[in-house]
Amino acid sequence: MTDRDPGSSVGEGGRALQGAGCGSCAAGHGVHPRRVQLCDGGPDDDWAAVVVMGAVGDLLTVAAGEELRRYRNHDAGRLTQLVDEVGSDALLNRRYGLLFLRTWPRDAGAVFSLQSADQPPSPCREPGAR
């Protein structure tokens, strides 16, 4: 596995990796395992080393070099708690909007879906709803 390689692990039984109570795999919600697999096979240009700066509500700020970027994630509280435990260095797959903390793939919960903060948040969906 390379430094940027997110691995090919998925959630138990191939389920989307997400916070409890949300069944959405829209940007900023749960992580669909297929998107993680697509990241694994993508080009190096899709990746950026970032530092997670923090979150206010569902808005997350990351630094990519000298540029600050803002994203939405409805589980930003869990994300920042995990960052406090494992460190703020992460990898961002720009093509699929996934943020991988350094404990991935050992910790399947260390990958988060991001949505541009410029877009209105999409609603959560009940788990199992179609």
Report on this model:
The protein has 130 residues and is α+β, with helices and mostly antiparallel strands. The protein contains 2 helices and 7 strands. Strands 6-5-4-1-2-3-7 form a 7-stranded antiparallel β-sheet. Strand 2 and strand 3 form a beta hairpin. The radius of gyration is 13 Å and the shape is globular. The N terminus is likely disordered.
Distinctive features:
alpha+beta; 28% strand; single chain; 130 residues
Query: Strand share of the residues?
Result: 25-35%
- Major beta-sheet overview: 7 strands, antiparallel
Tell me the series of helices and strands, N- to C-terminal: HEEEHEEEE
Helix-strand category: alpha+beta
Number of helices: 2
Can you tell me the residue ranges where pLDDT is under 50 for at least 5 consecutive residues? 1-19
Q: What is the count of β-strands?
A: 7
Strand order of the largest sheet: 6-5-4-1-2-3-7
Alpha carbon gyration radius? 13 Å
Summarize the structure.
The chain has 130 residues and is of the alpha+beta class.
Summarize the helices and strands and which ones pair or pack.
Layout: H1 33-40, E1 47-56, E2 59-64, E3 67-72, H2 76-86, E4 89-93, E5 98-101, E6 111-113, E7 115-116
Antiparallel strand pairs: 1-2, 1-4, 2-3, 3-7, 4-5, 5-6
